Amino acid sequence: MSQPWSDGPQPLYTPFFGVMGAASAMIFSALGAAYGTAKSGTGIAAMSVMRPELIMKSVIPVVMAGIIGIYGLVVSVVIIGDINKASYTLFK
């Protein structure tokens, strides 16, 4: 049975796409976390005028948006950890 991958030489651009995958994981998760923080921050500011006693409860969405950025960092580290000279023959 044939395998869909080969152990032979690979194109020069394979490490580029591996690194770009890690970079895009970090970039898009940071953008999403920043957007979520901004949207929840404006909601907190608007809500604190009406009911100032609920400010600490409404910090939870800001924390959850920050966790998304941390998950993106973890995914990018996992992707970078798989890029090595054994799996990419032309990785320099």
TrEMBL record:
Please give the family membership noted in the entry.
Belongs to the V-ATPase proteolipid subunit family.
Q: Which Pfam families does its entry note?
A: ATP-synt_C
Q: How does it sit in the membrane?
A: Multi-pass membrane protein
Q: Which GO terms describe its molecular function?
A: proton-transporting ATPase activity, rotational mechanism
Q: Where in the cell is it found?
A: Membrane
Mind telling me what this protein is named? V-type proton ATPase 16 kDa proteolipid subunit
Q: Sorted alphabetically, which Gene3D superfamilies does this protein's record hold?
A: lithium bound rotor ring of v- atpase (1.20.120.610)
Judging by the UniProt lineage, the source's domain of life is Eukaryota
Give TM regions.
Answer: 12-38, 59-81
